[in-house]
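Final paragraph of the annual report: two paired records, presented back to back.
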Amino acid sequence: MRKSTPLLLSAILIWVALGPCLPSAGQDPQEKTDLEYRIGAKDLLEIKVLGEDKLSTTVRVSEDGKISFPYLGEIQVDGLTAAQLEKKLSRLLEEKYIINPQVKVSIKEFRSKRVSILGAIGKQGSYELLGRTTLLEILAEAGGLARDAGKEIIIIRQQADGSNISLKIPVEDLMQKGEAKLNMVLEPDDIINIPADQIVQIYVYGQVKSPGAIQVLKSNIPTLVRAIAQAGGFTERAAKGSVVIRRKDALGNEKEIKVNVKNIQKNKAKDVQLQADDVVFVPETIF
């Protein structure tokens, strides 16, 4: 099987979907992020006061959303943007110490708003939510879906009452059909799980041009006719009317299914859906 095509397709689809979201030329992505991002616990802030080196500091937000600032003591910063915190500090400093203070706040580490990505993804791990972040944006940041990704993306989200809900996103509808409503905005602490689709084998032997094992995804096991085509098609000596499928049940008991493929090709019979580990044998015609 070729391994590069699904990854390349995944990357192209994500790139196309993200086109309108990418920053325009000349725009500083970090500056845009700082303007939109709302400060939370564990974030690391760099605060500078123009001409007042003693007031300039780097401080981490506490678990209860506060920072300790020279002369002002503890200040609640949770939920503020950098710009809002600049205004708040300027007002507090002007009330007590400095005339028209010039305050600059930069977010050095984003720790309070993160999501986790697990499963069949390029790079599993924890990712920062920088401003308004969508599902496709975080998938792109994580390297795109892996070759063995399944048909669904599952987002586990915590509700206000502490309970969890599972949101199931069909990969085809999101990435191939481009349904915008499925490209949802992520929330802090979301867990994004991309279950892997198991790779299984079917076997095609006898009078086909390339006999042997065929690796397929469990969610996309071929039909009998497709499997024979993947094995190179029938040879000239194939007995198309006497194809046999050998299949084991859950207890390991084997049964044989005889199929007249000529009838399927003439639309007189339905194609047969194969299962994992099926063995297809195409006998040689006696004529």
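The closing record of the year follows.
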Amino acid sequence: MIRIFCDKKAKDLNNFWGHIVFHPTNAIEDDWGKLYLDKMADDGAAKTVRIYSMFEECVTLDENAEMVFDFSLTDKRIDYLVSKGFDIFLVYAFIPPWLSAEKDNTLIKPRYKGAFFYRSYPSDYEKWEEICRVYTEHLVRRYGEETVAKWKIHCYNEPDKIHFFYTNAPSYKARAEEFFKLYRGFVNAITSVSDKIELGACGFADAYEFLEHFLKLVKHSGLKFDFISCHPYGTTYSLINDETRPLNAYDPYKYIHTVKNIAELCGFENIPIVCDEWGALEEGYYGMDKCPAYEMRENELYAAYYAKLLMCIEESPICIDKFMICLSGQHELEEDFGGHRNFFSKSFYPKPIYNAHVLANKLGNEKLYHYADFSEERISVLPSRCSEDGRISVLICYADPYFVSSLPDIDTGIAFEGPDGIYCVKKQVIDRTHANAYTKFKELGRPQNPSEEIKAIIREAGELKTEECGKVSPKNNIINLSMENNSVVLLELYPD
């Protein structure tokens, strides 16, 4: 039996989950990008969207080597996101090609629609600072200081990685020192426009030596530093294949805990942490052809993983501000379910991980007390109440945290203690046969060129369904619940 105390608030709930990295940024103006974002907005699947400023297309040089600014494309993208009600997490990156200091080995393969980015440090930091200042002035004029102050603005992306910044750096320390110059120009530029905007860095990946040295430089400088950002991925195909680090819902949390410890070591004891990318698995451009375990990105297992992980983090003392799943590789889909990290298949079938975001974002702003009268780590529970309308919502996940055991079906009771009246109960489920387009896709023989009729059947199978579960009251307060392996359930109680 799981007991939920409807009249006992445990604490305010920081709903840090349910945010996304929309990649590629320059797909926002495309029909398919708008299709994805429209559905996310309609379903409440995402609250904040992370994008790049894409300075490489905003700033060019004229015949006199003077900078010329054109913000028409970035305006189109941000306008669209704002019109849909999303908050913005804006990454100032990357540098224009003419500002590249490293003239050799500075290009990564062309990105979407032929875009390149240069992974060098700037040849002129004053020009970098000027770009950041002019861009920020433009944002404040266009959207207003109060609106921009509600966003977060972040300097660059994964500068500790050789394929993003300073490819020829002789050491992590040298790379951190060079990146600190980039951050200093970024801060000086933005604060000259507004001191209300939240600023942070560094989109840290995995070089802890880099992070420690950079944070010490920031602390010593006294520069504005409102949040630290990092990318907690669970594991990789190579570590799964050689069984070094199998899939589990604890590794991203361990990573975040390490980042917190380094921040404290460097004097940032209470700084919020933004996980501005996360995923159960790295390599967004790889799929099941590279590693069969990547099938989990398509099925109910990823939904359970997400629910387990967010509840693990929520119960910890770490202050997480935002937790943003990375949706990279959306533009390179060659088949419907290939094991890539995105919310929708090629034919726009919603995946279970998408539906899990929809459910999690329905949780209220107050956490309620609860306990279970059995010792079972495989069941995770997060009960909440919305202070505005009195709605009670409970997220429940049943899964092995290491996702290796095939758990038996279970039946459990949910007792709602202390309700102040009669509540109507509704239930939404994600499991192998509920809100799972992939199961239906497999049942129909994995059709890669389906008719519109077949597409509609698969798409409908992937949608969340709402089931009426009767009512609870002070005299009749128990709801019986059946769950299968790797399942996620949201119970919602509405005052009758």
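The CA atoms of residues 227 and 272 lie 5 Å apart. This concludes the annual technical report; the extension proposal builds directly on these records.
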